[in-house]
Amino acid sequence: MKRYTACGLGNGIVDVLVNVTENEFKELGFERGTMTLVELEEQQKLLSTLGERTSRLVSGGSVGNSIIAIAQLGGSGAFVTSLGDDRYGLFYSQEAEHLNVELGAALKVGKSTGTCAALITPDAERTMRTCLGAASLLCPEDVSEESIRQSEWLFIEGYVFANPPSSLEAIQTAVKYALKHGTKIALTMSEQFIPNVFGQQVSAVLEHSDLVFCNEPEACALSGATDSTEAFRELARKTKGVVVTQGARGALVSCNGEAFSVPAFPCEPIDLLGAGDMFAGAFLYGICSGIPARQAARAACYLSMKVITRYGARIQTGLKDYWREGLEADPQSATVSTAA
């Protein structure tokens, strides 16, 4: 029995959640719904402009959110990342301890912890300005072989491919340790530009992966297909397992030799931040707990619905109760997909 359900490898980012009006957003001139990497000076200027309107801080990062969800559900998680020795890094470390996540974070002296200014507009869309800071300094020496050896899964964040070369070497080191110790490998694409720009590097990791998570644009970019159904069919042929999330239409899943779709739960979204992270964490927790993939995906959809009906990428309390509610939803309502 391994100690951890999953060991994540990703960018340790502190989310700075900010609600803005349509007029305020228009004045900023950002493209809605995008994630853009910015330099530290630009990020500091933006946060200073927002000033008192900052709602709250939440430790995260894509895979970091998924690992936290696993821990909240009753699993156990470790997270390999890189933080700065500043107040954001201290906040991240303290919250990880509170959430029972084993944080393998290398502290980079004199560097700033990564931050993500998540601007939430009235339509529930989030537009992100991310400064990677110390997260971009992740290197092979920061990767814990013991944490990976003790994990059922290694979960790799796609955004790390866009970091400097030392972070790609960290991914390669983590994959080597996973293969050495029989740890399954999961990969999330994070954003469609990742397979578009770093296709060769992604393919090299995908070759060893047991499961890949994508949304529709990411699946199309990864497969070369023009729609999510075709993309799912192509990826299901090429990989051991794949999940393509489709927002309000649910998800397409190929896992353990079967392919199926699960519907989404209708809701009025408030903030779309974290839906995919929650789905991935919940699904990994479910299949590691012996729950059939179809039922785990249904419950993961339920939790994704719950997270987008509140602000922020996480559900602070009651996640286990929501998980049980999701599991009680009739798994037969998931329809067999003809896409595979």
Structural overview:
The protein has 340 residues and is of the alpha/beta class. The chain is built from 13 helices and 15 strands. The strands form 2 sheets. Strands 6-5-1-9-10-11-12-13-14-15 form a 10-stranded mixed β-sheet, with helices on both faces. A 5-stranded mixed β-sheet has the order 3-8-7-2-4. A hairpin with a 5-residue loop joins strand 12 and strand 13. Helix 3 packs across helix 11. The two termini are 33 Å apart. The relative contact order is 0.14. The C terminus is likely disordered.
Summarize the SSE layout with pairings.
Elements: E1 4-9, E2 13-19, H1 22-28, E3 35-37, H2 40-50, E4 54-60, H3 62-73, E5 77-84, H4 87-98, E6 101-108, E7 114-120, E8 126-131, H5 145-149, E9 151-157, H6 165-181, E10 184-188, H7 193-197, H8 199-206, E11 211-215, H9 216-223, H10 228-238, E12 242-245, E13 251-255, E14 258-262, H11 275-288, H12 293-307, H13 319-328, E15 335-336
Parallel strand pairs: 1-5, 1-9, 2-7, 3-8, 5-6, 9-10, 10-11, 11-12
Antiparallel strand pairs: 2-4, 7-8, 12-13, 13-14, 14-15
